[in-house]
Design goal:
about 45% helix; 5 strands; about 170 residues; five-stranded mixed β-sheet; 4 helices; alpha+beta
Length: about 170
């Protein structure tokens, strides 16, 4: 492969787009076990891919900016005394080095979606490593941070411009 950084960037972009979709979509609560099982697998696979590729790009291009996970799709607070991860690099490290990893579905307000029996959403990842305590990472905020903070920082180091959108 000619340029591993460019490959990693494209993979991170694709994974971030999937996390954006998965972290903002409602899923059925009633009789939703099959769908939730597939969504859980997809979120796990996509998150690990995102973390590996995003870390590679940031490390290889020596980007040391402290990117923050401050744009959640849904506002929530951790329960049971757990902390929420606020820095992208910390989140990436926790994902890559996780010894425990769980996708967190939470019930959505009744008016959040028109799904018979109610809806749940993928809100967070519960991670723990051999060196770090258990903490929660906002799934949507990972993607939002990547698109709104990381990509602009990468473009500024390359002298690139914002890609245009076709309507």
């Amino acid at each position: 492969m000619a340029d591993i950084d460019e490959f990693a960037l494209r993979q991170a972009e694709a994974a971030a787009a999937k996390l954006w979709a998965l972290g903002s979509a409602p899923f059925p609560l009633a009789n939703g076990a099959i769908i939730q099982s597939h969504i859980e697998h997809s979120v796990t696979d996509t998150t690990i891919s995102f973390a590996i590729h995003a870390r590679r790009v940031l490390d290889n291009r020596r980007i040391r900016t402290r990117f923050t996970l401050d744009e959640p799709f849904r506002h929530w607070s951790p329960a049971h005394g757990l902390s929420k991860v606020h820095v992208l690099q910390d989140a990436l490290n926790r994902i890559v080095h996780a010894t425990e990893f769980e996708v967190g579905f939470e019930r959505l307000p009744d008016d959040a979606a028109k799904i018979a029996g109610g809806a749940v959403g993928v809100i967070y990842l519960r991670t723990k490593t051999d060196r770090r305590e258990e903490a929660l990472i906002d799934v949507f905020a990972l993607a939002s941070c990547f698109f709104h903070q990381v990509l602009p920082a990468l473009r500024s180091t390359q002298g690139g411009s914002e890609p245009t959108t076709v309507h």
